[in-house]
TrEMBL record:
BP GO terms, sorted: amino acid biosynthetic process
Modified residues (N6-(pyridoxal phosphate)lysine): 346
Keywords for this protein: Amino-acid biosynthesis, Pyridoxal phosphate
Annotated InterPro entries: P-loop_NTPase, Ser/Thr_deHydtase_PyrdxlP-BS, Shikimate/glucono_kinase, Shikimate_kinase/TSH1, Thr_synth_N, Thr_synth_N_sf, Thr_synthase-like, TrpB-like_PALP_sf
Protein name listed in UniProt: THNS1 protein
Co-factor(s): pyridoxal 5'-phosphate
Molecular function as annotated in GO: pyridoxal phosphate binding
């Protein structure tokens, strides 16, 4: 006999009651805001007075799993169907459904749930309980809701084999699949933890996954971040007050020692069954599942994360698939990453990161975000932060530094056109490497950052790919691309693929390598460079040598980079988190313009990476060739990757080429590749000419509209001088926040 009993709710500290504490603590200790919930989670036992509430569709195994979890925890187990509903009604659930009908049944079921109370128990909900809001709010008050997420096809197979008849909502003209899909919105609304349950996974395995997930939920102390330049001894003696969590690194951007933040225990691993459970899922759901495992709910609860992801990808992308995979020719496929509002892959992170940032920062401080761009980041970050709520815009501003003469005319028009009341673009009379290095130096200039905090109540933050939050959305689309190939029947799960990426700041490449560590079967990552081929030489030889190298302006400006910042994160990964070695290498690069990898590290690197480069001439020839044979126009960066892929792939497995930008952004080079003799210098005229080709993909909708509205516009221009940049920053803070 299962026990149901009344209890007095434990007096908990709620997030609302913590708000005043947060403000005070934030002023004294920047990391305190992220630690308040964590301190509560970690000070309690696995269950205590809380209930573990299992939720999911009919056939998810809630009852069986609940009994196993209860046995392992030696606590009461309650099945809502058997122990509450049927006891209350004195009839079976199926009889009640037949007696009162669908709508009345949901109401009666909800009323029974409202009268139910338990403590320290494992509770298995019915499949339809989550459809009654008041009932779920009641049980959730004293419980951790665990969603057993089973693929719809698996549920349908289970229900068919069991010949289950008591499915609420089944009626003529409404399929079981439709009902299951309809209910997902309710499950997603209520859960605290998601547990992925694949096809034939045993109930005992699911129970262990539930316990592991609850432990993670209650203890976020394990999910802290470290600097790529911190030593093991520094990390082992680190005090709790100095620990950094996701919400801290989102706002801090760059570590105080000049390193980049990485998760101390690495990224989560997905099993093959878990990945296979996402094959049928749409992009937004894949993103939520992956990011839930990378962001602790103490930093951003699952329900809020879902809301942010829906906002980022729900209506802002012109293609419903968000990141579609298109067959190009032979074994080559294109991952189209240009369907966002500003026509480049940067939209994937920068439609999401502003909302993560706004959620994580304390309300007591203003923030100025500094960005350096080689082209695409600028318009993407300006657009992303312009979509924040007005109240957030008042406390979050952004300045975008770009090489004044180092971006395409359309890219410059975009960055000027996307300026808003809280976001500005500043052209710098230098190259991208100067802009990026300058920002890093500003962040580590404690005198300047301290002055801004004391004088203006404003902290600095970063939105470049040096910010950890920028990388996570990029992991999603690499994983999603692989799952799409499986879904399309091109490969079976477990079969390897290669990936070729036009590589600039190494963030896109690093995200693919991270996807590999999380369980996506990527064989080789091919790094494609243009004539600024320092990275290609490094991957081939292990020698990173900038001596005598000057940046060359090419038709693929996003790859015109000699110092890719995210390379540091990758070297930290393959060096087994040896922060001292990473510090030594990058100090040598800074002081002597070169370093050389040890032989064992070079061997590890070359297991993951191969590299090549191509000239501008070869890039334009590839654009012309692909258009002539397929009717498809590549942008200049994708063309660089195509050339390198043709040279380096062995054609024994599919290769996905990252198409990182829409060709519209580089119209002069594209028109030249298509052998147009006379090219009008007006960007809008260039796009109209390209649209006359009726090529695939069509002209980018957002880009065309932006150019129609903005024309040339105005922007500030700054000398390549640190003092000048800091002066610009102070002036912008004065104008916006004071």
């Amino acid at each position: 006999m299962f026990h149901i009993f009344q209890y007095q709710p434990l007096r908990l500290v709620t997030q609302n009651s913590l708000s005043s504490m947060c403000l005070k603590l934030m002023l004294s200790r920047p990391v305190a805001f992220a630690q308040i919930w964590k301190s509560w989670f970690s000070s309690h036992s696995l269950l205590g007075k809380k209930n573990i509430i299992l939720m999911g569709p009919p056939g998810a195994g809630k009852t069986t799993v609940g009994r196993i979890v209860g046995q392992k925890l030696d606590c009461p187990v309650i099945d809502i169907d058997d122990d509450v509903l049927e006891t209350t009604w004195n009839m079976s659930v199926s009889e009640k459904l037949q007696d009162v009908g669908y709508e009345e049944f949901l109401e009666e079921e909800g009323k029974a749930l409202l009268k139910f109370s338990a403590s320290g128990s494992v509770i298995s909900l019915s499949g339809s309980n989550p459809m009654h809001a008041a009932g779920m709010q009641h049980v959730k008050k004293n419980g951790i809701v665990v969603y057993l997420d089973v693929p719809t096809t698996v549920i349908m197979s289970r229900l068919k084999s069991k010949q289950m008849e008591r499915i609420v909502g089944v009626s003529p003209g409404i399929s079981l699949k439709d009902i299951l899909q309809f209910r997902k919105q309710f499950y997603k609304r209520w859960f605290d933890i998601r547990v992925l349950c694949g096809g034939d996974i045993a109930a005992e395995v699911v129970a262990e996954k539930v316990l592991d997930a609850v432990k993670r939920y209650q203890d976020s102390e394990l999910e802290t971040f470290i600097s790529t330049r911190s030593s093991r001894s520094e990390r082992s003696t680190e005090e709790d007050s100095h620990k950094l969590y996701f919400s801290d690194v989102v706002t801090q951007g760059l570590a105080l020692d000049g390193g980049l933040f990485v998760p101390g225990r690495g990224l989560p691993k997905f099993t093959a069954e878990e990945w296979q459970g996402l094959i049928e899922a749409p992009y937004v759901e894949r993103a939520q599942v992956i990011l839930e495992r990378c962001i602790h709910p103490a930093d951003i609860p699952a329900s809020k994360l879902a809301e942010i992801i829906e906002t980022a990808y729900g209506e802002n992308f012109s293609c419903s698939k968000i990141a579609p995979v298109r067959h190009l020719a032979g074994n080559q496929f294109l991952l189209e990453l240009f369907h966002g509002p500003t026509a480049s892959f940067k939209d994937f992170a920068l439609q999401l990161v502003p909302h993560l940032f706004a959620y994580c920062i304390p309300r007591s401080c203003n923030y100025l975000i500094l960005v350096a761009t080689s082209g695409d980041t600028g318009s993407a970050v300006l657009d992303g932060f312009s979509r924040l709520h007005d109240t957030d815009k008042q406390r979050i501003a952004l300045v975008n530094f770009f090489p004044e003469d180092g971006v395409s005319p359309i890219q410059k028009s975009q960055m000027i056109g996307y300026q808003k009341e809280n976001a500005w673009s500043v052209g710098v009379k230098s190259d991208f490497d100067f802009c990026q290095t300058a920002i890093k130096q500003i962040f580590t200039n404690s005198d300047f950052t301290g002055f801004l905090t004391v004088e203006y109540g404003t902290a600095l933050a970063a939105a470049n790919s040096i910010n950890w939050a920028r990388l996570l959305p990029q992991i999603v689309y690499h994983a999603s691309a692989y799952l799409d190939l499986v879904h399309q029947g091109i490969i079976s799960f477990g079969s390897p693929i290669d990936i070729c990426i036009p590589t600039g700041n190494f963030g896109n490449m690093l995200a693919a390598l991270y996807a590999k560590t999380m369980g996506i079967p990527i064989r080789k990552c091919i790094s494609a460079s243009n004539e600024n081929n320092v990275l290609t030489n490094f991957i081939r030889t292990g020698v990173y040598d900038l001596r005598g190298r000057k940046l060359i302006s090419t038709f693929s400006p996003a790859v015109d980079i000699l110092k890719p910042s995210n390379l540091e994160r990758y070297l930290h990964l393959i060096a087994n988190e040896d922060g001292q070695l990473v510090t030594q290498l990058f100090n040598q690069l800074e002081n002597q313009d070169h370093f050389q990898l040890q032989k064992d590290l070079l061997g590890k690197l070359q297991q993951d990476l191969v590299a090549g480069w191509c000239s501008d001439e070869d890039c334009l020839a590839a654009i012309h060739s692909v258009y002539s044979t397929t009717g498809y126009i590549l942008d200049t960066h994708t063309a660089v990757a195509k050339v390198v892929a043709d040279r380096l792939q062995d054609r024994t497995c599919p290769i996905i080429i990252s198409s990182t930008a829409h060709y519209s952004k580089f119209a002069p080079a594209i028109l030249r590749a298509l052998r147009i003799a006379e090219i009008n210098q007006n960007p809008l005229s260039q796009l109209h000419l390209l649209s006359s080709y009726s090529a695939l993909p069509p002209i980018h909708w957002g880009l065309l509209e932006t150019l129609k509205k903005t024309g040339n516009g105005d922007h500030q221009v700054c000398a390549a001088d640190m003092s000048a940049l800091m002066s610009h920053i102070e002036t912008l803070i004065q104008n916006h926040f004071m």
